[in-house]
Amino acid sequence: MRRVRCQRCGHMFTLSRDLVAAALEEVQQKDLEHYTLECPRCRHTVKVPRADLERMAPQP
Ligand SMILES: [Zn+2]
């Protein structure tokens, strides 16, 4: 499941397949440990570890 939980408000939201693919591309290009996005509910910055993105990405 491509689900992320906000550490501040506890809101769970699902990342679209396209977003995961774009996020993974970005972390790989920039060699980042985390991809950051905003919680849709409280706008807190949520970090998604690169390893999680790799797990969430569609398998070839
Ligand atoms: Zn939140």
In short:
With 60 residues, this protein is an alpha+beta fold. The chain has 2 helices and 4 strands.
How does this model look, in words?
This protein is α+β, with helices and mostly antiparallel strands and 60 residues long. It has one domain (3-56). The chain is 35% helix and 27% strand. The chain has two helices and four strands, in the order ββαββα. The protein has helices spanning 17-30, 50-56, and strands at 3-5, 12-14, 34-38, 45-49. Strands 1-2 form a two-stranded antiparallel ribbon. Helix 1 (17-30) packs across helix 2 (50-56). The longest helix has 14 residues, at 17-30. The model has no long low-confidence stretch (mean pLDDT 94). The structure holds zinc ion (ZN). The site of zinc ion has 8 residues, from loops. Zinc ion (ZN) binds next to loops.
- Placed side by side, the strands forming the largest sheet appear as 1-2
Q: What portion of residues belong to β-strands?
A: 25-35%
Would you report the number of β strands? 4
Tell me about the biggest sheet? Answer: 2 strands, antiparallel
CA-based shape:
globular
The domain count comes to 1
**Tally the helices: what do you get?**
2
The separation of the N and C termini measures: 17 Å
Low-confidence stretches: none
Mean pLDDT: 94
In sequence order, what are the helices and strands, one letter per element?
A: EEHEEH
